Amino acid sequence: MVNTNTSALGIIFPNSYDSLVPELVSERLMASIPFAGRYRMVDFLLSSMVNSGIDNISIIVRKNYHSLMDHLGSGREWDLTRKNGGLSIFPPYSEKNVKVYSGRVEAVASILDFLETQKEKYVILSDTHTAVNFDFRKMLDEHISSGADVSVAYKKEEIPEGFKKIEVGRSDLYYTLSIDNGRVNRIFINAPEPGPQNFSMNIYIMDRKFLMEQVKGAYARGYVYFERDILAPRLEKLHVHAYEFTGYTARISDMKSYFDENMKLLDDENLDGLFSPSPVYTKIRDDNPTRYINGATAKNVMVADGCVIEGDIENCVLFRGVKVGKGAKVKNCVLMQDTVIEDGAEVEYLITDKNVTITAGKSMKGADTHPVYVAKYQVV
Amino acid sequence: MAKEMIAMLLAGGQGSRLYALTHKLAKPAVPFGGKYRIIDFPLSNCVNSGIDTVGILTQYQPLVLNEYIGNGQPWDLDRLYGGVHVLPPYQQASGSDWYKGTANAIYQNISFIERYNPQYVIILSGDQICKQDYSDFLRFHKEKGAEFSVAVMEVPWDEASRFGLMVADENDKITEFQEKPKNPKSNLASMGIYIFNWDILKKYLIEDEADPNSENDFGNNIIPNLLRDGRNMYAYHFSGYWKDVGTISSLWEANMEVLDPEHSGINLFDDEWKIYSRNSGMPGHKISPEAVVENSMITDGCRISGTVKHSILFAGVRVEPGAEVEDAVVMGGSVIKSGAVVKHCIVAENVVIGENAVVGAMPADGEKAVATIGPGVYVGSNAKIGPNAMVNNNVKDGDVQW
């Protein structure tokens, strides 16, 4: 094979950390949360994989996946309509004693037959709660040269507040790593230490056969979590290599961070960090360009196509097809696709989900620490 | 399975009057309206009208156009049977030839059309900005029992002599055709959009090809021959927005009209009749705290730090702090450096306007000149480009061109 494709297949877990943002996932999952004006969280990961030469990607969904199916379609926008590989979406099996998976072990166990028949030597596992422009080729090269059984990507950063609130017994776990000379020697689970930590990005690379063996064994013993039950107890035997990622990350860990991560993109440096070096693909909507009319003013905003702005907008992220009426004032807001702010309405520190309407003359205000969230299709 | 109607889109025009924009680009591929190319309009009209088979006849500078059309997916024209096909001239056992005229271009592709065995063929032009429902045109054609129909626009009588005119009776039956006459008998201008019964079209194409004196042109040869033979020919009245963007000033004007859909009638914001295009895939545009944006259209990927008034910015345009853009059409990927002033002009794709350079000027009374900067041109710092200039080569720092 000519050296354009990477011998790795991707497995994506789109429901990880759903529990951190219950409002946003009431009718969707983490992977389909709208982000950065015209994207969904999964776009960043899919695009990074495709741009790294990975064209065989599986998504193992757990629940609320209609919006994701609708978004992904055949995978064409990510160039994933392939005869060999391409995009596969695995919904939960409907069987006797039906039980949707809770950890990676169960999820991967449900597609073992599929994995058996694939050709790629390596697999890459990832969640979707982090928007990132990630070079998987680079990580794979380092994985191969390290000779490790497993590589895990991490970033040196403080543990986001949202994660610290995870209660014991909740299904979503987070991991910090103790690293010695590039090798992970301890994995801490839900350990809210202060200051910068080696915070796992939950991106793993390993041999496909290795993953299958581990999962078969673990599944038979009733294990659930890949990190907690397979890696953490056996770090002396297993060589787990730590791959440091130093690029830009936007992580959703609660509603506040969702707001903040959108707003951070108003800084060009952050925007360039997320959208370079490789492009990010998403579903096309064929919107017209955005129109500013009738004395509209705009200061410090990011606005996607298809908007019509007639009022004043400041410090905002506007998704596709947002309408801001005459005399309306919109400040410090994240307005998702097709939100309508009618004439004269005044809003501040607001997150509106899809198709929200704020009627004429209404006034709504959140605080920078607690932006107000308005759910899908609500009319205020 | 036969198709009821397929479309043949004439896209071979050189667009010589748009020279700075078209010396490396077929006219239908010229960008328009922030994120479109001219050809998006007829293609979107086709798919919105239910036509799923389109042949695009190209011969002049087809590279960009070919890549842009690709498999036709952005227009939903990637079909198992039908879809969009780019048809350049090709070699045949009997020899090969460039398309000699509009009729000859169709003649050379008779075998393409026969593959779909259509009842009707609609001939479209690739250089018009127009939203038109071709299915309504076909309904008219069938109701009249026509063998040939042409879409016409009423134009002001004092301008009528600039057009090919159809003289029609009260039943819209065409009785006479006048090509740019001194004394017009009609103000119904041909839009260059025709529906033919395929058997009639084929017969006249073959006959026309056999005539050594023919220019092989629809307007000059085919239509007069149909009239001569007393065929059933009808004029279909179209009253929506229509613009032939064959000149720099009409192209500029049409772009400006997009900014004012309430009056001009060209509404790109119509969910019922979307215009599709190949997408830039860039993130949303950004307007910085010091920027001023008034009455403009801004596309994904733009970054605005200067002043933009009454202008159309295509994907990925950058306007640096202190730069001024007014009444301008700035195409994809161009950069207006700080302090530059860009007014009443067209700036093509991937142009750099250097610091403090001046391009174009707001027109004095009665003047309509639109300065034009060709694609990929670098205009140096402090250079000055006059309102009548058409610039195709890099301009050195401080140079002046009129």
Layout of helices and strands:
The complex is a heterodimer of chains A (380) and B (402).
Chain A: E1 8-13, E2 34-35, E3 39-40, H1 41-51, E4 56-60, H2 66-72, E5 86-90, H3 104-109, H4 112-116, E6 122-127, E7 130-132, H5 136-146, E8 150-157, H6 161-164, E9 175-180, E10 183-189, E11 197-207, H7 208-220, H8 226-231, E12 240-244, E13 249-251, H9 255-264, H10 268-275, E14 290-292, E15 297-303, E16 308-309, E17 312-318, E18 323-324, E19 329-331, E20 334-335, E21 340-341, E22 346-348, E23 350-352, E24 357-358, E25 363-365, E26 372-374
Parallel strand pairs in A: 1-4, 1-6, 4-5, 8-12, 14-16, 15-17, 16-18, 17-19, 17-20, 18-21, 19-22, 20-23, 21-24, 22-25, 23-26
Antiparallel strand pairs in A: 2-3, 6-11, 7-13, 8-11, 9-10
Chain B: E1 5-10, H1 19-22, E2 31-32, E3 36-37, H2 40-49, E4 53-57, H3 63-69, E5 83-87, H4 102-107, H5 110-114, E6 120-125, E7 128-130, H6 134-143, E8 148-154, E9 164-168, E10 174-179, E11 188-197, H7 198-210, H8 218-228, E12 233-237, E13 242-244, H9 248-258, H10 261-264, E14 285-287, E15 292-294, E16 296-298, E17 303-304, E18 307-309, E19 312-313, E20 318-319, E21 324-330, E22 335-336, E23 341-347, E24 352-353, E25 358-359, E26 371-373, E27 378-379, E28 384-385, E29 390-391, E30 400-401
Parallel strand pairs in B: 1-4, 1-6, 4-5, 8-12, 14-17, 15-18, 16-19, 17-20, 18-21, 19-21, 20-22, 21-23, 22-24, 23-25, 23-26, 24-27, 25-28, 26-29, 28-30
Antiparallel strand pairs in B: 2-3, 6-11, 7-13, 8-11, 9-10
